[in-house]
């Protein structure tokens, strides 16, 4: 009798455990939802690719910490494209065919994003690109490609700043021989000329050249008011330094990307002072109405990843949040989580995030993406244009007495 | 402007020389096609970066320290290269390619993917009117000429140098003449390692450091060695200056689009019409 009682108690405990742990176990084991991300984690673009991935990881961690997508854990499968398009395609095929990911997110620069957008169309898998500019990449006949950045978001504020705010009379355009940089240079050339600004020099170069001094010498006979260098972080390290060393009396140096990073300021030291860059978001500079969310994200990110979030991190985070939001709506509506359903949900996205209000047009381009002009002042990135986002006034002309 | 262009060109050429010197010596003496040459230069640059950034070592002191460290590393690598089987040239090329990937990934792990730069040593010096020379250019030109002269004198005026040249010219004949070829290999790797150690900090100061930046340096080394001919040290300096002049001149007059095209075109022409190197003499029948 006593034995039977013990057995009953043991069974009762086991039964109770199953009852209690059952739903929890079901929650953990419920088929996780897989998304894939392909970024340059090695090679020349690795520093930016890793930041994009970190932003995406942050969005996935955030949603999993909040219970996942309707109780389903989101699993992020990350792949390295080695900063090479052919590797990016191979890795994406692997993620889609073997890992059976539901959607793709991430990517840095058009040469790596472009091939993936075509792959997304072929496999009917939605792809939300984190950093892509080229206009022709998005097309109405590709309903699976979305991106959170666009060339207009850079060219419009930049052109407005040079022509209206600075009132420059002449400009020189140096740009990297990449699709996005070339198109941006073309767009700026047209816009500057329309505004009556004389474009004295336009030069295209391969990113990563070890010496810019012949190009800098071209500016010396008749220095332009403004030099716009549409190129990457590493090229600014050499070009901005050589401009100062060779004493070319330009009034402003603008790097649409690659300049507005704390690491750039750190590596350049005082030579970074007064340089202009563009930035979509940084701690302390959020879209009006999202200040609190931005502050909370910054605190959480610093605490969790022990580093400072950057504009590139936020591009990754924003793209992943847009995708996860669409997926959550599909699941919430009781529909199957298929490519066409997610793509349909993405087209109706309207999400207010610290970097931008995310909504897409018929081509998958962002409707509200717009960068802010920042200037490096006393080692800090100070937003200066447009007026509604400005937190300080700009220094113009730049000080040339500062030496690297 | 012309004087400024000349100074910049000589400085760029001097940088190319330093990058190529170590490769040329190692390739000439040991026939090792060291594709990891650039990665070793970047590694040396990171060492100098760490010394200047975290221990506040003056830039001048980082040079001998890096040279010593890279000499030791090069000798360690030689021990690995010696384990390779025939055909040695092909095996060393494949091995060095793998080695380059390993070093790249190790650097990525230890130094992250961030771009790093060693601060310059001071403001530029005004020579005349609008012509300036930077401290970094002075380092580059001075050290490049000094290294070239030292290596050249060693090869031409010392018994050791003659033995090294003999190995460069004909390895088996040198062995038959009683020269200890294995010992010459060690010396070539030691000298090459020291030159790699010298080039690294200057790369970090004149350009930037990045784990994947080594391939660029290796390509420069290969191109300059082809320009001058393997083991032709004085020719190396002239070849490097000539290549720098071509690149700078092309950028200035034709535009930067043409920079690589002109250099590549000349290199292809050289390989077809003068494969022994631009400044090398053809061997006479008697020499052969």
Task: Compile the SSE list and pairings.
The complex is a heterodimer of chains A (404) and B (288).
Chain A: H1 2-29, E1 33-39, H2 46-65, E2 74-80, H3 85-98, E3 103-108, H4 110-123, E4 127-131, E5 145-147, H5 152-165, E6 170-176, H6 179-194, E7 198-205, H7 213-219, E8 226-230, H8 233-245, E9 252-255, H9 262-268, E10 276-279, H10 291-305, H11 311-332, H12 339-347, E11 351-352, E12 357-358, E13 372-377, E14 380-385
Parallel strand pairs in A: 1-2, 1-3, 3-4, 4-5, 6-7, 6-8, 8-9, 9-10
Antiparallel strand pairs in A: 10-13, 11-12, 13-14
Helix pairs in contact in A: 2-11, 3-4, 5-6, 11-12
Chain B: H1 2-30, H2 37-54, H3 59-81, H4 88-111, E1 125-128, E2 131-133, H5 135-157, H6 159-169, H7 171-176, H8 181-206, H9 214-228, H10 233-253, H11 259-273
Antiparallel strand pairs in B: 1-2
Helix pairs in contact in B: 1-5, 1-8, 1-9, 1-10, 2-3, 2-4, 2-8, 2-9, 3-8, 5-6, 5-8, 5-10, 9-10, 10-11
What does this structure look like?
The complex is a heterodimer of chains A (404) and B (288). By secondary structure, chain A is an alpha/beta fold. Chain A folds into two domains: 33-149 and 287-358, Response regulator (Rossmann fold, 3-Layer(aba) Sandwich); 153-279 and 372-385, 3-Layer(aba) Sandwich (Rossmann fold). Helices cover 44% and strands 18% of the residues of chain A. Chain A contains twelve helices and 14 strands. Chain A has a seven-stranded mixed sheet with strand order 7-6-8-9-10-13-14, sandwiched between helices. In chain A, strand 1, helix 2 and strand 2 (74-80) form a beta-alpha-beta unit. In chain A, helix 11 packs across helix 12. The longest helix of chain A has 28 residues, at 2-29. The radius of gyration of chain A is 24 Å and the shape is globular. The termini of chain A are far apart. Residues 17-29 of chain A have low confidence and may be disordered. Chain B is mainly α. Chain B has a domain at 14-115 and 130-214. Chain B contains eleven helices and two strands; from the N terminus they run ααααββααααααα. In chain B, strands 1-2 form a two-stranded antiparallel sheet. In chain B, helix 2 (37-54) crosses helix 8 (181-206). The radius of gyration of chain B is 19 Å and the shape is globular. Chains A and B meet through helix 2, strand 7, helix 7, helix 8 and helix 9 of A and helix 1, helix 4 and helix 10 of B.
């Amino acid at each position: 009798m006593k034995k039977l009682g013990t057995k009953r108690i043991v069974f009762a405990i086991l039964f109770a455990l199953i009852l209690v742990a059952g739903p929890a176990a079901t929650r953990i084991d419920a088929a996780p939802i897989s998304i894939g991300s392909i970024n340059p984690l090695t090679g020349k673009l690795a520093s930016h690719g890793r930041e994009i991935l970190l932003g995406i990881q942050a969005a996935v961690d955030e949603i999993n910490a909040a219970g996942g997508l309707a109780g389903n854990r989101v699993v992020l499968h990350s792949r390295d494209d080695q900063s090479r398009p052919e590797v990016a395609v191979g890795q994406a095929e692997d993620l889609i065919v073997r890992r059976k990911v539901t959607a793709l997110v991430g990517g840095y620069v058009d040469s790596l994003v472009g091939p993936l957008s075509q792959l997304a169309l072929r496999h009917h898998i939605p792809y939300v690109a984190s950093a892509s500019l080229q206009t022709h990449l998005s097309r109405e006949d590709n309903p699976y490609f979305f991106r959170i950045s666009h060339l207009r978001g850079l060219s419009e504020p930049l052109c407005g700043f040079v022509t209206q705010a600075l009132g420059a009379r002449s400009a020189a355009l140096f740009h990297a021989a990449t699709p996005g940089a070339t198109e941006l240079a073309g767009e700026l050339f047209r816009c500057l000329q329309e505004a009556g600004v004389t474009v004295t020099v336009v030069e295209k170069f391969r990113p990563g050249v070890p010496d810019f001094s012949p190009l800098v010498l071209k500016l010396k006979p008749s220095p332009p008011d403004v030099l716009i260098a549409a190129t990457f972080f590493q090229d600014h390290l050499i070009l901005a330094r050589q401009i100062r060393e060779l004493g070319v009396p330009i009034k402003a140096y603008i790097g649409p990307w690659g300049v507005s990073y704390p690491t750039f300021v750190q590596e350049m030291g005082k030579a970074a002072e007064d340089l202009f860059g563009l930035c979509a978001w940084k701690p302390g500079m959020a879209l009006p109405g999202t200040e609190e969310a931005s502050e909370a994200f910054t605190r959480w990110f610093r605490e969790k990843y022990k580093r400072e979030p950057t504009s590139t991190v936020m591009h990754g985070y924003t793209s992943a949040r847009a995708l996860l939001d669409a997926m959550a709506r599909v699941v919430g509506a009781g529909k199957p989580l298929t490519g066409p359903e997610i793509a349909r949900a993405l087209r109706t996205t309207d999400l207010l995030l610290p970097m931008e209000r995310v909504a897409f047009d018929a081509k998958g381009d962002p409707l509200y993406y717009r960068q802010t002009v920042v200037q490096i002042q006393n080692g800090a990135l100070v937003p200066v244009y447009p007026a509604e986002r400005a937190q300080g006034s700009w220094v113009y002309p730049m000080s040339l007495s500062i030496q690297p | 402007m012309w004087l400024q262009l000349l100074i910049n060109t000589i400085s760029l050429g001097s940088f190319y020389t330093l990058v190529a010197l170590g490769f040329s010596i190692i390739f000439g003496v040991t026939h090792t096609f060291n594709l990891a040459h650039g990665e070793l230069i970047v590694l040396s640059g990171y060492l100098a970066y760490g010394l200047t950034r975290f221990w506040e070592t003056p830039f001048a002191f980082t040079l001998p320290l890096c040279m010593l460290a890279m000499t030791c590393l090069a000798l360690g690598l030689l021990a690995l290269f010696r384990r390779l089987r025939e055909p040695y040239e092909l095996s060393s090329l494949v091995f060095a390619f793998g080695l380059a990937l390993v070093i790249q990934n190790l650097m990525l792990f230890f130094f992250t993917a961030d771009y790093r730069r060693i601060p310059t040593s001071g403001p530029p010096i005004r020579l005349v009117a609008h012509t300036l020379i930077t401290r970094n250019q002075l380092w580059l030109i001075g050290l490049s000429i000094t290294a070239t002269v030292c290596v050249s004198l060693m090869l031409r005026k010392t018994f050791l140098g003659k033995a090294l040249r003999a190995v460069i010219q004909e390895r088996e004949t040198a062995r038959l003449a009683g020269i200890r070829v294995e010992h010459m290999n060690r010396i070539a790797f030691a000298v090459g390692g020291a030159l790699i150690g010298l080039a690294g900090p200057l790369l970090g100061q004149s350009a930037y450091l990045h784990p994947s930046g080594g391939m660029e340096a290796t390509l420069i080394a290969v191109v300059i060695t082809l320009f001058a001919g393997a083991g032709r040290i004085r020719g190396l300096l002239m070849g490097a200056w000539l290549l720098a002049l071509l690149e700078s001149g092309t950028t200035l007059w034709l535009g930067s689009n043409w920079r690589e095209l002109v250099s590549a075109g000349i290199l292809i022409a050289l390989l077809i019409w003068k494969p022994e190197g631009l400044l090398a003499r053809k061997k006479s029948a008697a020499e052969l």
